[in-house]
């Protein structure tokens, strides 16, 4: 197991704190899959499901030999993350137009988003190295997750959030869990640029998705998905595109499962961005050699309101290798798709609905075929951004006309009025 630059191939030991190579290329973790193949089996992972033995009851650390085989169990910081469900509902399938459409609800994680899958590994690595001060820039979910893991391990956490551009549900978590929260001028991209440039100078261990250990944790989503589906990979996995860590993680996870013989194929990866924050989609559709940032990203889906995604090279590699696609959807499409997800009792924050809106669009465009098995990633819980949900149903979102509105009805405590409202 080592760290390797994705651009020049230079290698670094796993105990060296760095996030990029001297050539500015991002690092990734290279696992010893030959050794892992001898150490693991489907039976081992099946036996650990529901385990009470720490840390193997975690949906991430169940796969420890494929995630971080070098770390001692006592250095692992876990709150039983992962173990999220795969769901379906006829309203979802009817809306998307697929008989085999499923969603994996990462909002069922302890802090309500997929970030926990990666954060447990990043914070555990910090603990392994004896580092006590950690930091992140965040649109909300990363800060909430980091704050929770810092609280467990009594670490000093510092989060940088763009002032006025974070959903209150997410900000409340960072404040409640006790990290130092710095509301900075500018957007997420500017905050991350500052933290990347200064984290080492300030003695902070950076846990954004530029950290390769975050990606190792997030690839467990692919492992768990495959296990839940009887060790069969779906035809497609569709996910929202923000900083693009998930695309690189899930692609990597399925590639590794295929290499050790646990799945017979690698699913096609589809990344879906909001039209107001779509630099990766532009790169893909225009056939560009490098990503051109969107300087002022705008979308109701705050979790993907990112104009300069740090992991675009890794994500592009996985989309290309899987013969996948990149698509974009409007805020109208996002919020209508969210309303359908919510109506099934699963619920999600706006960014998550990119998966469902994107699936519908890809089916309508004939890219996804009617017989294919598709899993959409719901990245965050509905309670992450309650204002967006309420304002959709109250028809208070600028530029959005709610097609699936469920407006509350005001009535007096009068039998006739209430009977009329119920029957109406």
Summary of the model, kept short:
By secondary structure, the chain is α/β, with parallel strands linked by helices. It has 17 helices and 13 strands.
Model description:
- By secondary structure, the chain is α/β, with parallel strands linked by helices.
- Among the domains are: 1-30, no CATH class; 86-110 and 214-393, Rossmann fold, CATH 3.40.50.
- Helices cover 39% and strands 14% of the residues.
- The protein has helices at residues 33-39, 42-48, 64-67, 90-96, 115-129, 141-153, 168-177, 188-198, 212-218, 220-228, 245-259, 279-286, 312-321, 331-343, 354-364, 386-393, 415-423, and strands at residues 2-5, 11-12, 27-30, 86-87, 101-105, 133-137, 156-162, 180-184, 205-206, 236-240, 268-274, 325-329, 374-378.
- The strands form 3 sheets. The protein has a 6-stranded mixed sheet with strand order 4-5-13-10-11-12, with helices on both faces. A 4-stranded parallel sheet has the order 8-7-6-9. Strands 2-1-3 form a 3-stranded antiparallel sheet.
- Strand 10 (236-240), helix 11 (245-259) and strand 11 (268-274) form a beta-alpha-beta unit.
- Helix 5 (115-129) packs across helix 9 (212-218), helix 9 (212-218) packs across helix 11 (245-259) and helix 11 (245-259) packs across helix 13.
């Amino acid at each position: 197991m080592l760290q390797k630059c994705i651009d020049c191939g230079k290698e670094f030991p796993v105990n060296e704190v760095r996030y990029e190579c001297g050539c500015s290329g991002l690092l990734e973790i290279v696992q010893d899959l030959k050794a892992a193949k001898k150490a693991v089996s489907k039976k081992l992972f099946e036996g650990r499901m529901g385990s009470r033995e720490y840390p193997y009851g975690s949906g991430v650390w169940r796969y420890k030999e494929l995630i971080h085989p070098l770390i001692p169990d006592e250095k692992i910081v876990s709150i039983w993350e992962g173990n999220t469900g795969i769901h379906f509902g006829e309203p979802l399938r009817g809306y998307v137009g697929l008989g085999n459409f499923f969603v994996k609800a990462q909002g069922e994680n302890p802090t309500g988003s997929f970030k926990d899958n990666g954060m447990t590994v990043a914070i555990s690595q910090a603990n392994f190295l004896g580092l006590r001060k950690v930091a992140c820039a965040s649109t909300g979910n990363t800060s909430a997750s980091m704050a929770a893991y810092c609280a467990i391990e009594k670490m000093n956490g510092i989060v940088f959030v763009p002032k006025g551009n974070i959903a209150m549900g997410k900000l409340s978590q960072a404040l409640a869990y006790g990290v130092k929260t710095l509301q900075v001028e500018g957007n997420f991209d500017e905050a991350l640029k500052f933290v990347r440039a200064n984290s080492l100078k300030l003695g902070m261990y950076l846990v954004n998705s530029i950290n390769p250990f975050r990606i190792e944790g997030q690839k467990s989503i692919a492992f768990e998905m495959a296990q839940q589906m009887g060790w069969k990979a779906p035809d497609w996995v569709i996910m929202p595109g923000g900083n693009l860590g998930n695309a690189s993680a899930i692609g990597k996870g399925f590639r590794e499962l295929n290499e050790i013989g646990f799945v017979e194929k690698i699913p096609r990866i589809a990344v879906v961005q909001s039209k107001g924050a779509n630099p990766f989609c532009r790169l893909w559709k225009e056939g560009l050699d490098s990503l051109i940032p969107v300087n002022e990203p705008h979308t109701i889906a705050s979790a993907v309101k990112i104009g300069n995604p740090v992991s675009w090279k890794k994500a592009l590699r996985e989309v290309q290798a899987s013969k996948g696609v990149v698509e974009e959807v409007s805020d109208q499409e996002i919020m209508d798709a969210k309303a359908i997800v919510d109506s099934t009792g699963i619920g999600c924050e706006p960014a998550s609905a990119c998966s469902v809106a994107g699936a519908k669009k890809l089916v309508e465009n004939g890219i996804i075929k009617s017989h294919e098995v598709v899993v959409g990633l719901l990245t965050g819980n509905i309670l992450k951004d309650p204002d967006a949900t309420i304002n959709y149903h109250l028809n208070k979102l600028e530029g959005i006309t709610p097609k699936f509105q469920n407006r509350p009805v005001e009535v007096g405590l009068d039998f006739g009025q209430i009977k009329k409202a119920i029957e109406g």
